[in-house]
C-alpha cells in the first residue's frame, strides 16, 4: 500500500511539472508572443491578396478591405480576439488533447500529411531508441568503470578515469557528434577505407517510407534493422564518450565512501570472495546514491545533449524535428515546436519516473520512510 | 578574544588557502588555464574594433577574403604550397588624374592565387576610375589586362568576361594553347600558370604587377585615397576562413570575453538565488522550509533546455536574456546543497550557545552561517559556469539566443548550414568546439582544485 502511495505521489509531482511547463509555454505563446502569430497572419494575408489580385483586378481600397476582412476572420479563427487567459486554456487544451494542427511547412519533414501528430509520432521511436539505449548502456559501462577505478584507488587507471570523468561534463555532446562524422564518415571516405559510416540519418534512404509510416514493420525486416544499427554506431559512440565519464566519476566517488565502511573491511577479513563483497556489500548500498546524483544532472546535460546530437546526426527523432522546425524552415514552425516540446518533456518525465521507481526499489531507506 | 580578527574561510587564512591552491597540480593547471582565457579576452577586447559585430555580419566587408580557406600554417604540414592572401596598399594623394605603381610578388606556391581585387578607399558614388594591369611574368612575357571600370570600393578582376578573354588570348598567342576557364570561375590562377608539354603547370618566380589608375573625371583628379591590390589566397591567417570569408581567428577571439562574461554572470545570479532560497529554507524551518524544499525539488526537475529553446524562439531572446532565464530555471541543485549546510550549522551546539548568550538571528547569520557558506558558494559559482556555457552554446548552435558578436556555437551553426562537415573543413568545426571545451574544462579543473579547500575532509 505504502509503495503505491509513494508512486502515486511521484506521478502527481511529475504531472504537475509537465503542466507547469505547458502553462508557461502557453502563457508566453498567448501573451507576449501572440505578435508572432499576428505577423504571420498579416504576411500570409498580404500574399493571398496579391495572388487574388493577379486574377481579379481590384482598386487599392477594395484590396485593403479584403485584406482586413481576411485578417479579422483568421484572428477570429486563431482566437486572437479573446482575452489572454482564455487563450492560455485554448492552447493548453489543444496540446493536451493532441489537437496539434498542421505544420506551416509540411514539405520540410517528408511526412506527407503535414499533420503535426504524424510528424511527432514518426519521430518518437528514434528518440526512444537512442535515449534509452544510450542512457542504459552508458550507465552500465560507466558504473562498471567507476567501480573498478575505486577498487584500484590511486592507480594510474583510477586517475585516468577521474580526469576523464571530470572533463567529460565540459564537452558538448553534439560537438563530439560533429567530430565523429568528420572522422568516421568524411575522412574515412577520403582515404578510401573499406569501412565507412553514414553522414547521418536513421536508416538508408530507401527504407524511410517504412520507418516513417510503419515503424513496427521496420523492426521485423532484418535489412532495415541492420541499416538502423549501422546508422546507430556513430550516435551511440558519441553518447558513450560523453556520458560514460560522468557515470564513472559519480560511481567512483560513491564507492570510495562505502569501501571505507567498517562492514566492508569486516567482510574482507571474513574472507568473502571479492565478487561477493563487490556485489553485495559495495554495489547494493552504492546504487541509490549513484542514481540520485545522476538524476540531478539529467535535465541539464543529458537532456539537452541528446536533442542536439540527434540534430547533428539527422537522426529522425524529436531533436532533429525540433532542429528542422527552428532552423530548417524560413520562419519558426510553431505548431511543431510546441508539440515537440510537449512530447520531449513527456518523454523526459517518463524517464525520470522510471528512474525514481528504480531508486525506490533499490533504496530501502526511501522504501521504509514512505510507509 | 583577539582584537584584530583575521579573515578566515573554512578555518584558514587567505594566505594558507593560496598556498594550498598553488601547491596542488590542479591548482597550477587551473591558474594557467585562467591566464590563457583572461589573456585572450583582454587581447580580444583590445584588438577587435568596437563595431566588430556589424562588420562580421556585413558580407561585403569579407568579399576580398578567400572563402573556405584553411589556415595558412597547413603549408608547413602538408608541403602543398597553397598561396596565402597577399595585400599591397599605397596611400595616394595627388591632384593629377593618373597614378601608376608596381608591386612585386614571389609565386613559390604550386596552387596559385584564386582571384585579384582592386580596392579603393574611400569611394564615393560619383567618381569612377579606369584601371589597367600589366603583369610581367618570370618567363618574360607580359599579360595586359584592362581597361577595367572601377565604380565601387571593391572590384573583382578575375571573373569578368573581358579579363577571361584577355587571358585566353594571351595563352593562344604565346603558347598556341586553347585555354578554357570554367564558367563562373576566375581567370586569375591562369595568370600564374604556364603550359608545358601540352598541360597547365604553375609558373614559379617573381611577378611584377603594374597598376595604372586613371580618374574618369580629370577635373577632380584622384585625390586622397588608399589603393590596394589583393591577391585572394587559398589559405588564410591563423584559423582560416568560412564560406562568407569571415576570418575565423577574429570570430573565435570574439567568443572569449562573451562566453566568460555570460558564464560567470549566470553563475553569480543562480548562486545568489540558491543562497537566498537555501538560507531561508534552512534557517526559518517549518512551513517556509517545506514550501521552499518543494520548490527546489521542482526546479531541479524542470527541463531547462527545452523551455529555453521555446522561449528563445517565441520571445527572440538574445544571449543575455537567455542566460537570465537559464539562471532562473536552474538554481535547484545549488539551493539543495546550501540548505543542507545551513541545517547542519543551525543544529550545531555553538549556535545554541550563541542563542543562550542572547545573539539575534541576524547576528548568527552574519557571524556563524555566512562565513561557512561562502566557500561553498564560491565552489558552486565555479561549478555552475560550464553548464551554462554548454547550454548557451547549444542554443547558439540552433541559431537562437544570438549576440552582436559571433559566438562559438553560432559559428558551428553556420558550419553545419554550409555543409562544412561533409566537405571536411576541420578548421571551421574543430576550433570553436575545442574552445567551448577549454572554457568549460577550466572551470571544472578549478572546481576540483577548490574542493579540498571547501571540504576539509578531503584535505590531505
Key attributes of the depicted protein:
heterodimer, A: 371 residues, mainly alpha, 80% helix, 0% strand, B: 460 residues, alpha+beta, MetI-like fold, 2 domains, four-stranded antiparallel beta sheet, 12 strands, 17% strand, elongated
What would you say this structure looks like, in words?
The complex is a heterodimer of chains A (371) and B (460). With 371 residues, chain A is mostly helical. Chain A contains 15 helices and no strands. Chain A folds into 2 domains: 2-108; 117-370, MetI-like fold (Orthogonal Bundle). Chain A has helices spanning 2-30, 34-55, 60-78, 84-96, 116-151, 156-168, 173-190, 208-213, 215-220, 222-259, 262-270, 274-313, 318-328, 334-362, 364-370. In chain A, helix 5 (116-151) packs across helix 13 (318-328). Chain A is elongated and about 100 Å long. With 460 residues, chain B is of the alpha+beta class. Chain B has 2 domains: 4-54 and 248-458, MetI-like fold; 77-232, Sandwich (Jelly Rolls). Helix content of chain B is 52%, strand content 17%. Chain B is built from 15 helices and 12 strands. Chain B has helices at residues 14-23, 25-47, 52-56, 74-78, 161-175, 188-191, 248-284, 286-301, 304-315, 319-329, 332-346, 349-356, 361-397, 408-417, 426-454, and strands at residues 8-9, 12-13, 86-94, 98-107, 115-121, 129-136, 142-150, 154-156, 193-196, 199-202, 205-215, 223-232. Classes of the chains: A mainly alpha (371), B alpha+beta (460). The interface between A and B is large, with 53 and 51 residues.
Amino acid at each position: 500500500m505504502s509503495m503505491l502511495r509513494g508512486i502515486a505521489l511521484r506521478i502527481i509531482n511529475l504531472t504537475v511539472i509537465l503542466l507547469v511547463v505547458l502553462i508557461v509555454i502557453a502563457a508566453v505563446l498567448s501573451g507576449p508572443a501572440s505578435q508572432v502569430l499576428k505577423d504571420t497572419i498579416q504576411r500570409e494575408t498580404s500574399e493571398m491578396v496579391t495572388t487574388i489580385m493577379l486574377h481579379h483586378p481590384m482598386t487599392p481600397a477594395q484590396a485593403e478591405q479584403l485584406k482586413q476582412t481576411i485578417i479579422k476572420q483568421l484572428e477570429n479563427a486563431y482566437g486572437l480576439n479573446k482575452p489572454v487567459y482564455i487563450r492560455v486554456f485554448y492552447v493548453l487544451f489543444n496540446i493536451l488533447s493532441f489537437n496539434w494542427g498542421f505544420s506551416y511547412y509540411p514539405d520540410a519533414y517528408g511526412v506527407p500529411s503535414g499533420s503535426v501528430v504524424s510528424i511527432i509520432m514518426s519521430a518518437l521511436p528514434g528518440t526512444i531508441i537512442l535515449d534509452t539505449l544510450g542512457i542504459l548502456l552508458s550507465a552500465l559501462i560507466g558504473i562498471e568503470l567507476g567501480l573498478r577505478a575505486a577498487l584500484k584507488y590511486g592507480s594510474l587507471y583510477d586517475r585516468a578515469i577521474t580526469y576523464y570523468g571530470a572533463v567529460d561534463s565540459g564537452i558538448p555532446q553534439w560537438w563530439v557528434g560533429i567530430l565523429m562524422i568528420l572522422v568516421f564518415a568524411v575522412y574515412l571516405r577520403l582515404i578510401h577505407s573499406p569501412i565507412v559510416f553514414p553522414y547521418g540519418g536513421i536508416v538508408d534512404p530507401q527504407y524511410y517510407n517504412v520507418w516513417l509510416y510503419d515503424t513496427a514493420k521496420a523492426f521485423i525486416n532484418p535489412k532495415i534493422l541492420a541499416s538502423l544499427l549501422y546508422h546507430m554506431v556513430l550516435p551511440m559512440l558519441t553518447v558513450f564518450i560523453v556520458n560514460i565519464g560522468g557515470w564513472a566519476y559519480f560511481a567512483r566517488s560513491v564507492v570510495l565512501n562505502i569501501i571505507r565502511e567498517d562492514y566492508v573491511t569486516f567482510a574482507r577479513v571474513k574472507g568473502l570472495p571479492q565478487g561477493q563483497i563487490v556485489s553485495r556489500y559495495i554495489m547494493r548500498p552504492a546504487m541509490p546514491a549513484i542514481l540520485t546524483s545522476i538524476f540531478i544532472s539529467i535535465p541539464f546535460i543529458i537532456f539537452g545533449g541528446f536533442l542536439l546530437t540527434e540534430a547533428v546526426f539527422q537522426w529522425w527523432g524529436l531533436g532533429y524535428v525540433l532542429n528542422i522546425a527552428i532552423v530548417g524552415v524560413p520562419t519558426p514552425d510553431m505548431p511543431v515546436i510546441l508539440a515537440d516540446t510537449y512530447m520531449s518533456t513527456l518523454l523526459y518525465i517518463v524517464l525520470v519516473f522510471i528512474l525514481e521507481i528504480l531508486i525506490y526499489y533499490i533504496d530501502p531507506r526511501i522504501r521504509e520512510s514512505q510507509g | 578574544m583577539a582584537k584584530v580578527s583575521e579573515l578566515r574561510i573554512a578555518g584558514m587564512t587567505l594566505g594558507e588557502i593560496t598556498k594550498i591552491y598553488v601547491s596542488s597540480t590542479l591548482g597550477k593547471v587551473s591558474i594557467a588555464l585562467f591566464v590563457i582565457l583572461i589573456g585572450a579576452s583582454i587581447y580580444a577586447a583590445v584588438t577587435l574594433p568596437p563595431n566588430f559585430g556589424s562588420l562580421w555580419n556585413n558580407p561585403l566587408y569579407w568579399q576580398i577574403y578567400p572563402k573556405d580557406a584553411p589556415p595558412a600554417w597547413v603549408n608547413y604540414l602538408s608541403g602543398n604550397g597553397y598561396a596565402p592572401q597577399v595585400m599591397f596598399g599605397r596611400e595616394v594623394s595627388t591632384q593629377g588624374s593618373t597614378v601608376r605603381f608596381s608591386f612585386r610578388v614571389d609565386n613559390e606556391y604550386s596552387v596559385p592565387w584564386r582571384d585579384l581585387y582592386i580596392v579603393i578607399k574611400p569611394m564615393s558614388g560619383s567618381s569612377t576610375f579606369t584601371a589597367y594591369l600589366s603583369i610581367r611574368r618570370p618567363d618574360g612575357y607580359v599579360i595586359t589586362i584592362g581597361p577595367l571600370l572601377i565604380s565601387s570600393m571593391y572590384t573583382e578582376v578575375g571573373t569578368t568576361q573581358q579579363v577571361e578573354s584577355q587571358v585566353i588570348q594571351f595563352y593562344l598567342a604565346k603558347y598556341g594553347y586553347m585555354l578554357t576557364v570554367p564558367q563562373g570561375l576566375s581567370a586569375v590562377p591562369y595568370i600564374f600558370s604556364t603550359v608545358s608539354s601540352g598541360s597547365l603547370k604553375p609558373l614559379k618566380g617573381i611577378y611584377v604587377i603594374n597598376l595604372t589608375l586613371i580618374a574618369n573625371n580629370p577635373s577632380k583628379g584622384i585625390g586622397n585615397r588608399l589603393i590596394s591590390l589583393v591577391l585572394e589566397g587559398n589559405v588564410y591567417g591563423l584559423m582560416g576562413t568560412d564560406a562568407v570569408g569571415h576570418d575565423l581567428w577574429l570570430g573565435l577571439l570574439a567568443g572569449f570575453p562573451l562566453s566568460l562574461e555570460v558564464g560567470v554572470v549566470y553563475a553569480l545570479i543562480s548562486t545568489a538565488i540558491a543562497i537566498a532560497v537555501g538560507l531561508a529554507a534552512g534557517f526559518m524551518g517549518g512551513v517556509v522550509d517545506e514550501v521552499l524544499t518543494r520548490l527546489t525539488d521542482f526546479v531541479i526537475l524542470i527541463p531547462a533546455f527545452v523551455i529555453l529553446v521555446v522561449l528563445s524562439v517565441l520571445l527572440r531572446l538574445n544571449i543575455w536574456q537567455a542566460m537570465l532565464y537559464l539562471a532562473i530555471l536552474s538554481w535547484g541543485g545549488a539551493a539543495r546543497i546550501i540548505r543542507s549546510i545551513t541545517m547542519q550549522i543551525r543544529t550545531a551546539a555553538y549556535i545554541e550557545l550563541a542563542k543562550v548568550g542572547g545573539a539575534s538571528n541576524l547576528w548568527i547569520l552574519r557571524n556563524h552561517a555566512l562565513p561557512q557558506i561562502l566557500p561553498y558558494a564560491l565552489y558552486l559559482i565555479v561549478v555552475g559556469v560550464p553548464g551554462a556555457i554548454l547550454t548557451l552554446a547549444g542554443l547558439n548552435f540552433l541559431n537562437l539566443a544570438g549576440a552582436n558578436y559571433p559566438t562559438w556555437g553560432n559559428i558551428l551553426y553556420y558550419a553545419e548550414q554550409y555543409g562544412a562537415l561533409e566537405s571536411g573543413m576541420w578548421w571551421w568545426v574543430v576550433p570553436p568546439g575545442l574552445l567551448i571545451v577549454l572554457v568549460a574544462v577550466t572551470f571544472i579543473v578549478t572546481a576540483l582544485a577548490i574542493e579540498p579547500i571547501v571540504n576539509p575532509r578531503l584535505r590531505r
